[in-house]
Every structure is written in C-alpha cells, then in structure tokens.
Amino acid sequence: MEWNPKEVAVREVSEGYYDNADKGAQGYGGKLNIRPEYQREFVYPVDRQQAVIETIQQNAPLNNIYWAINKDGTYEVLDGQQRIISICRYIENRFSVIYKKEEYQFHSLTREEQEQILNYKLEVKIVEGTNREKLDWFQRVNIAGLELTRQEVRNAIYTGTWLNSARAYFSKAGCKIHKDYEKYMKGEYTRQAYLETAINWKSNGKIVDYMENNQNEPNANELQLYFKNVMNWVQASFPKYHEEMKGRPWGILYNKYKDDELDVKELGDEITKLMLDSDVTNKKGIYEYVLTRDEKYLSIRDFEENDKRSVYNSQKGLCAICNKSFKFSEMEGDHKLAWHLGGKTIIENCQMLCVPCNRTKSGR
Q: What is the domain-level CATH number for residue 323?
C-alpha cells in the first residue's frame, strides 16, 4: 500500500466541475471522479460547507484528501468528497460565506480574494494498492466526521459495471425494490442497507469475497434474481403480513428451507397463536422458530423471581430431579410441562432444578 503526496490547487480541482445526481460528480478537468455513482449523495449542511471555505480563506490546512488512481490514469475520491464538493459549490455561487462581517458569494469577492481561494493548495495523497489493501485502509478512515456505512466503504473499493447495476436496482432513490419490499427490510436503502443485506444472504456472509469475484461482471442480474426469489418465497410461505416480519433474515431462511414442503395454512395458524401467547416475549423470532423449532428464538418468559423462591422453599432447597440440596443461586426455574407441550409460565407449573439437571433436561 502506497500513499504518494500531491499538491493540487483549488483552481485545478474545480476545473470542469459538474454534479449530476444520477451520474455522480466530476472535476479536475474530467480526470477526477468526485462522487462515483455508488457513493452516497452530498450530505454536508451549509454550516459545514461554509467552514471549509473559511478554512481556505484563512490559509489554514484542511485534512488530507485521498484519491485512488485508476488504470487509465484518472482518479477517484476515497476520502474528501464532501470537502471538494463544498469548494466547487462555492465557486459556482451556490452558497454564501461570512467574510469581513458580510455575506459573500464567490462572484462577490474581489479578484484578489478569488485568486487566493483558487490558488489554495489541497494536500492530496494518491493511494495505490490492491483492493483488499484499500478496503482495509478505508475502513479505518473517518470521513470528515460523517462516517460511511460498511457497504458504502466496500462500494468505494469494488467499483465497476457490476456495482453500478446492483446499486441501480437496490439503492437508487425511488427504486421499485423499496416500494415493493420495504415492509420486509430494515435500514436505509439509499445508504446501501438493502444491497448489503442481499449480498450477505446470497454469499452466506462472505460479502467482500462476493463483491471481489463479481466486480467485473457486466451486470448484477444474478443477485437481483436471487433477491426476487427470496421475496417470492417469503410472500408465498407467509401470506398474512405481521409487522414483526420486517427485518427478519429472510435470505438465510430461504437458503436453508426453500425446498421444504411447507403447509402454509398450518404455519399461518401457528404464527397467529404464537403472536397471542404471552409467554413468547420475542415475537420477531416466531418466523425462525416455526422453521427451525428452536425455542431460543422466542425468548420464552421466565418465571418470576418471587415464584421461583417460593417453589425453592417448598422443595426445601432440593433439586426436583436429583434430590440433592443446592443454594437458590445454584438452581433454575423449569417448566414441569414443557412450554411446547402447552405448559404455561405460572407458579403451578414451576419446579426448581440444579443447573446440571436443567441443562440435561433441556437437551432431551
């Protein structure tokens, strides 16, 4: 990994600047991709933009800016997008800065004052290295106090036709996927949450490997088709919608159970019953439970502390299975009749077991 220093004047960076919401932002005479398509939109509020210009007017140093060099000799901004766009926006008279107790847009400054800004030197570091090295470095960088999401960081490294296709489908503002599946997904889709989730599901958690392997593919059709298949399976298997369906690990469940023959009506009836069960404290976990039958997803309500102590005293401190004496702290409340067999979390169904016996019973 190499960082080669380069001084670039504001005049040079702002040459040929344009910002298109769909096609990104460019400058440096068309040689610098300031905001690639995969990056998030410009987010600096006006006061942060003004602070950048005020720093330049005072000839004070801005933090280092990092560019990655491409094979064709052009550059992409890795760190510094917000500062560069703030500078270019000011030169385009998009906002004012208080200067000598008055508000001035760039065109209102004297020629000398304009030249001072245009001649200001940005300290740029040109980053060269493998994609893995860049990703490792980029994950450690705080982007001017406005941190990127993990997927935005990955997007900054694994650019290409595949990513452009994937982002257009999963992340573009107003995209159809958000309208169709928002009630099943969590996170901000424009901040790459849907894209990250889809890749995570498809790759079984190996997101970086998947992006690296597909970086130069012509499109992301495979990922899009996979995601649609997941959502079709969800809607077919669980046609009655509950709010608790939002944000479940649907792709992980699809990968494992998509070929199982599910009784949709039976599943629906069971889900409704579990939603009404006061012993089920984690309603969101119902969907994992009805497929895996693992009660850990339900967080079955524990017995009240007073009830456990009352039962402990009635048992005279003896474990109900091994009949040995234990301290209260060494015992746990257990359902005499298991919850899945209809046993409720009430004192009449409570027995105190030592930890070893309870673990053994639970494992049966």
A: 3.40.1800.10
